[in-house]
Write a structure and sequence with these properties.
Bound molecules: adenosine-5'-triphosphate, magnesium ion
CATH superfamily of the largest domain: P-loop containing nucleotide triphosphate hydrolases
CATH class of the largest domain: Alpha Beta
Shape: globular
CATH topology of the largest domain: Rossmann fold
Structural class: alpha/beta
Helix content: 40-55%
């Protein structure tokens, strides 16, 4: 049993493939992007990569690009000198420097602001940068891993993520399938989480019945392994299987209904007014409103910039800080014309 098997519990064919890929790329130093839905184990895979590599005795540093506001993220990554900005009362090393000789995980990379993405691209070329407020270059040696639950390829097409950065990061792509596609792992995960939790709360191990296990194998786990872990721990603590089961079923129904709404609303039963008709107002789904509002705002800004540049698309793309290709895609998607 190697480090990969110790860290990543499960023996289903899909997870075995992930583990095989980890072993193959460990120590390669090639940039890796780890993708998959929330809770599938992206951070754990990053850790397994680090511990399977020659860098295992060195730092493993994680930066959550979604949790830190844009302007702070740059100083968090690259550090700053005393006096670089208001409040910088002492010099601080950035995460890249801390990760020297080790591994850095850029978690939720899809949320990194575009302005920082261009700096990131430069750093990935020569691993050289300067702390904010400093003129001296720092050079580091670290393995860069990135994780995301976004579809970055789609984001790149839409100009939300730099295409060149995407290609630089995406040398090796490790996709972790959602838990519902690998029910073979569920039994082992139940036993693993139950065992660990029993130790933690110093209680005897709860035996999960075949009925519960069958249910777990068929449930869709929208929150993936994290949801399974939480459920195992809750059952060990409260033992309220019937209530828990009802909650899981209700959650699954809500999910399915939500999904159906976005594709095609179910027809109302004859004689019975539909749910929407029973409500006094006909509210549109939030997702639709959000998409419409974004498209309107984007359309307005892009039209203004295009008018300002006399429809010089290259210049407009520069101003908007998106790629030329992404701008062409937007112009087509938003159906913009020179006379608009
Ligand atoms: N194969 C596995 N074996 C053991 N534990 C696992 C496995 N996969 C995930 N976990 C556990 O499930 C939880 C969620 O995993 P992790 O934080 O790595 O997911 P994530 O994909 O990074 O989620 P998010 O997108 O929300 O950040 C953690 O407690 C992790 O330890
Ligand atoms: Mg994570």
């Amino acid at each position: 049993m190697d480090i990969c098997d110790q860290i990543l519990v499960g023996k289903g064919p899909l997870l075995l493939k992930v583990k095989e890929l980890i072993r193959q790329v460990a120590s390669s130093d090639l940039n890796v992007i780890i993708c998959g839905e929330s809770g599938v184990g992206k951070e754990l895979v990053a850790h397994a990569l680090h511990l399977s590599s020659d860098r295992k005795g060195k730092p493993f540093v994680k930066v959550n690009c979604a949790a830190i506001p844009g302007e702070l993220l740059e100083s968090e990554l690259f550090g700053y000198e005393r006096g670089a900005f208001t409040g910088a009362d002492k010099t601080k090393m950035g995460k890249f420097e801390i990760a020297h000789n080790g591994t850095i995980l850029l978690d939720e990379i899809g949320d990194m602001p575009l302005s920082l993405q261009s700096k990131m691209l430069q750093v990935l070329q020569d691993f050289q940068f300067s702390r904010l407020g400093s003129k001296n270059d720092v050079k580091v040696d670290c393995w860069v891993l990135a994780a995301t639950n976004h579809d970055l390829e789609q984001d790149a097409r839409e100009g939300l993520f730099r295409e060149d950065l995407y290609y630089r990061l995406n040398i090796i792509r490790i996709f972790i399938p959602p838990l519902r596609e690998r029910p073979e792992d569920i039994d082992m995960l139940i036993d693993y989480f139950a065992g660990r939790f029993a130790q933690k709360i110093e209680k005897p191990l709860l035996i999960f019945s075949d009925g519960v296990r069958d249910f777990f194998r068929q449930y869709s786990w929208p929150g993936n392994v994290r949801e399974l872990k939480n459920m195992v721990e809750r059952l060990m603590l409260l033992g309220d299987w019937e209530t828990a089961k009802e909650e899981l079923l209700a959650r699954e129904t809500r999910q399915t209904n939500g999904h159906e709404l976005t594709t095609q609303p179910p027809p109302p039963t004859p004689g019975e007014p539909s749910k929407a008709a029973r409500s006094k107002k006909n509210f549109p789904p939030l997702k639709e409103v959000k998409k419409k509002a974004i498209m309107e705002a984007e359309g307005k800004l892009i039209s203004e910039v295009l008018a300002e540049t006399d429809w010089n698309r290259r210049r407009a793309a520069e101003i908007l800080q998106i790629s030329y290709k992404a701008l062409l895609y937007k112009i087509k998607e938003l159906n913009l014309h020179p006379e608009d």
